[in-house]
Design goal:
Number of strands of chain B: 12
Structural class of chain A: alpha/beta
Largest sheet of chain A: 7 strands, mixed
Low-confidence stretches of chain A: 1-32
Strand order of the largest sheet of chain B: 2-9-10-6-5-4
CATH topology of the largest domain in chain B: Rossmann fold
Strand content of chain A: 15-25%
Distance between the termini of chain B: 46 Å
CATH class of the largest domain in chain B: Alpha Beta
Shape of chain B: globular
Helix content of chain B: 40-55%
Largest interface: A-B, 49 and 50 residues
Number of domains of chain B: 2
Order of helices and strands of chain A: HEHEHEHEHHEHEHEEHEEHEEHEHEHH
Order of helices and strands of chain B: HEEEHHEHHHEHEEEHEHEHHHEE
Oligomer: heterodimer
Mean pLDDT of chain B: 93
Number of strands of chain A: 14
Strand order of the largest sheet of chain A: 3-2-4-5-7-6-12
Largest sheet of chain B: 6 strands, mixed
Chain lengths: 363, 389
């Protein structure tokens, strides 16, 4: 329950000050033209953390000699050697278990899954061996491990390679689950994840790897981290709140541009963190706009948006002026054909339509 | 009699004959020597070092292998023109494995493979058009455009796909064999996987149960020596796969020699169906392309190596030389056949290009076999609500 459900609009919302600070930093970065791809953000984060802490090591398929299936670990083998950058056989259950065992003894593995679809072979170790251990051992054994890799749909990779696992991992106590969107998110959250003493599931997106984002000198600092569990208001607004994570943040921002043409000012929240979920930021936003569209790429039933909806109706029911809208992936296995895949994944027009409905601008 | 019935007659005659009956040959029989010895694990005797074939079978095998080669080269072009999306794993170089094995199997036997499945699909009686249409996501594809390159199926010919997750074909194949045994069918199942999959725990679990329950199962390892970008010696403590378990016999065979694969498969099938339980075949083969179309294939292997295999061990060149030596076909006839098959493949691609995309109603079809009354949703759950038929 949020402290004191007060309707007074003069109530100070703690997040607002830091909001303004972020907005100006971003504008500064954009003005200076300093950009970074998500791939480089991830690569530099791993590189810096490995340089700073000899206990950090990387393992996964093709991370070393191949330079990474998606080139995220490019150059690391050359820099840190085969003792700290390990090419594994195609045996996820085995190498994940090895990573977790190493973490029990205080090492800090970064386990890469070529995609999180393959992590299903290892999910027993992620949940039963990593997530639950600190609790089961009464606080004696912690698991400072990061599981990272691409999550969700790519382009035309079919049913077995397109699943979004945010909801599954997000439901598990003992895990932290983060979903970066921008290069700044990628750097700050990955560094935080590597430094975090708990197991972190770090869900990237293949289609974002090559995207450029503005970064400030602050973001480039080797000690730059972002707090796990805090969402970011990417765009301020007054009429409707749109929550999203990962690739959908970009779609939500474009939807906000579309809505602005019709005079609807949407506030876009980049969740950044699925577990812990930043219920405070989400609710504070809905208490300002009174309307919510929750967006995710994964399946709707028991999805991340379902939890967002539950949180808002529990904590801000009296503020809602319209039913909460959910835009998610279609409730089907991912089809391969391009025209069907497009219908299976949320598009910008879906978000726009839902926002207008929430604003009673359309049926 | 059409060529196909002659071919299938020849296959039934020769496939079911025990090794010793090789002496009682049809008058037009051609004997093919298998030069590379079979390496055996837990076996006193191995497959025959001589394969008995016929003109018809040789011509069919050449045509089938050349068709696969042309199909894969064309698939490469289609991918580069962005008509094929996502992943595309090509089989060129490995043709002798699928064609050799099919020469010893029937469509009553079951086959399951991983994602490098275009050729296996053809070997199981799939057409080039169905394959291309599936790769391009058209409704005429063998999975109605909903599966894609890694998910080709033809259960009517007992081909169970087409799987994207490494290692799963072991247990799944054991399940197919289990069903055959349960229903008392006199057929084998063939579970195909690669060297990259060879260390997967689930394979050992499948082997244990297949051994325990005497399942009529052939584990076929298509060892092309590279699991994506990782050479077998960098992924495996032990770089052979036919002798991985101490309780299942195995045979290592030259996978670039279609007749070696045929004889090994025939031996393996006999072994399984005589109640001796499962067996492992390891085919030493090679893929010319990289792991997939996103992999150039030359960062972890030298161009000299790829060229060397192409020059010295190409399976199609090999069978061609044999056929010329045995006066089955002359060089000009090969040119004519090549031209005909190239045209066939090009026509299939052109036809598939013009085929329609799947209709939007396909989005919600085939989620369940029995789905009456279930509600499902599109991306905008307030707009697209579907009651499944």
């Amino acid at each position: 329950m949020l402290p004191g459900i007060v309707r007074s609009s003069s109530r100070h919302l703690p997040c607002r000050r830091s909001l303004t600070k972020w907005m100006s930093v971003r504008n500064l970065a954009a003005a200076s033209g300093d950009q970074m791809t998500v791939r480089d953000a991830l690569n530099s984060a791993i590189d810096e953390e490995m340089a700073a802490d000899p206990k950090v090591f990387v393992m996964g398929e093709e991370v070393g000699e191949y330079q990474g299936a998606y080139k995220v670990t490019k150059g690391l083998l050359q820099k840190y050697g085969p003792d700290r950058v390990l090419d594994t056989p195609i045996t996820e259950a085995g190498f994940t278990g090895i990573g977790v065992g190493a973490a029990f003894q205080g090492l800090k593995p970064i386990v890469e899954f070529m995609t999180f679809n393959f992590a299903m072979q290892a999910i027993d170790h992620i949940i039963n061996s990593a997530a639950k251990t600190y609790y089961m051992s009464g606080g004696q054994i912690s698991v400072p491990i990061v599981f990272r890799g691409p999550n969700g749909a790519a382009a035309g990779v079919g049913a077995q390679h397109s699943q979004c696992f945010a909801a599954w991992y997000g439901s598990c106590p003992g895990l932290k689950v983060v979903t970066p969107y921008s290069a700044e998110d990628a750097r700050g959250l990955l560094k935080a994840a590597i430094r975090d003493p708990d197991p972190v599931v770090f869900l990237e997106n293949e289609l974002l790897y090559g995207e450029n984002f503005p970064v400030s000198s602050q973001v480039r600092d080797p000690n730059f981290t972002l707090p796990i569990g805090k969402a970011k208001v990417e765009r301020e607004g007054t009429d409707v709140t749109i929550t999203a994570f990962s690739k959908m943040v970009g779609f939500a921002l474009k939807a906000a541009d579309e809505l602005a043409k019709d005079g609807i000012k949407a506030e876009v929240i980049n969740l950044r963190s699925i577990r812990p979920l930043d219920r405070e930021t989400i609710n504070a936003s809905v208490r300002k706009t009174y309307r919510l569209v929750a967006v995710e790429e994964g399946w709707p039933q028991h999805g991340v948006c379902a939890e967002v909806c539950a949180s808002v109706q529990e904590e801000s029911f009296d503020y809602l002026d319209a039913p909460i809208e959910r835009i998610s992936g279609a409730d089907i296995p991912m089809p391969y054909a391009a025209n069907l895949e497009r219908l299976a994944l949320p598009q910008i027009e879906d978000i726009v339509r839902a926002a207008k409905r929430a604003c009673y601008r359309s049926k | 009699m059409t060529r196909s019935t002659v071919g299938s007659l020849a296959r039934r005659l020769f496939a079911s004959q025990p090794r010793q009956a090789a002496a009682a040959q049809a008058p037009d029989a051609i004997n093919v020597e298998i030069p590379v010895p079979f390496q055996l694990h837990l076996l006193q005797e191995g497959p025959a070092r001589e394969s008995v074939t016929s003109r018809e079978e040789l011509v069919k095998m050449y045509r089938d292998m050349f068709r696969i080669r042309r199909m894969e080269i064309t698939a490469d072009k289609l991918f580069k023109s962005q008509l094929v999306r996502g992943f595309c794993h090509l089989y060129d170089g490995q043709e002798a494995v699928t064609i050799g094995m099919e020469a010893a199997l029937t469509y009553e036997d079951t086959v399951i493979t991983a994602y490098r499945d275009h050729a296996t699909f053809l070997g199981r009686g799939g057409t080039v058009h169905e394959c291309f249409a599936e790769l391009m996501g058209r409704s005429t594809g063998c999975a109605r455009g909903k599966g894609g390159s890694m998910h080709l199926y033809k259960p009517s010919n007992n081909f169970y796909g087409g799987w994207g997750i490494v290692g799963t074909t072991g247990p799944l194949g054991a399940g197919l064999a289990f069903a055959n045994k349960y229903e008392k069918k006199n057929n084998v199942a063939m579970a195909i996987y690669g060297d990259g999959a060879g260390n997967q725990g689930q394979l050992f679990e499948a082997k244990n149960m297949a051994g325990l329950w005497d399942l009529p199962l052939i584990f076929l390892v298509e060892n092309n020596h590279y699991g994506m970008g990782t050479a077998e010696w960098r992924a495996s403590k032990k770089t052979t796969f036919y002798d991985r378990v101490s309780y299942i016999p195995g045979i290592k065979v030259d996978g670039m020699d279609a007749f070696a694969v045929k004889e090994a498969t025939r031996f393996a099938k006999e072994h399984c169906l005589s109640g001796k339980g499962p067996i492992v075949l390891e085919a030493d083969t090679y893929r010319y392309h990289g792991h997939s179309m996103s992999d150039p294939g030359s960062t972890y292997r030298t161009r000299n190596e790829i060229q060397g295999v192409r020059q010295e061990r190409d399976p199609i060149e090999r069978i061609k030389k044999l056929m010329i030596k045995e006066n089955v076909m002359r060089e000009e006839e090969f040119k004519a056949v090549d031209k005909e098959i190239k045209q066939e493949v090009d026509d299939a691609a052109a036809k598939a290009k013009d085929d329609p995309n799947p209709g939007e109603e396909e989005l919600f079809m085939n989620i369940y076999k029995n789905d009456s009354g279930l509600k499902t949703y599109g991306c905008d759950r307030n707009m697209v609500r579907v009651q499944l038929p």
